[in-house]
Amino acid sequence: MNVNFNGSKQQKAFLRKIYIAYLIDNDRHNLLSLHKLTNMPRRTLQDAIAVLSDLAIECEFVQDGERNNAGYYQINHWGAINRDWVEAHLQQIIAELT
User: Fold this and answer.
1) pLDDT tens digits along 8-50
2) One-character DSSP codes across 34-79
3) How far apart are CA 50 and CA 87, in angstroms?
4) Contact criterion met (CB below 8 Å) for 16 and 97
């Protein structure tokens, strides 16, 4: 099933957030690994992660080591977003973001 994305700025911001949440939910990622995987600027990633709560997605940083930034992000709850829908439409989402 294809979804018709309209390419608006707001829609791209939404897709970016759910794409980043999906990546975080699939593996232990920090900003550096997300940057390497997506080629998105660090600031864009930070901003998107900071506002995941706007979508009722619960994301936290799990400290894993002594350094302040040693750790990874973790999704605790997807809120109203259907993770399975994101997974099923992942290629379309990626295409829309590139």
Assistant:
1) 888 899 999 999 999 999 999 999 999 999 999 999 999 999 9
2) HHHHH---HHHHHHHHHTGGGGT-EEEEEE-SSSTT-EEEEEEE-T
3) 22
4) yes
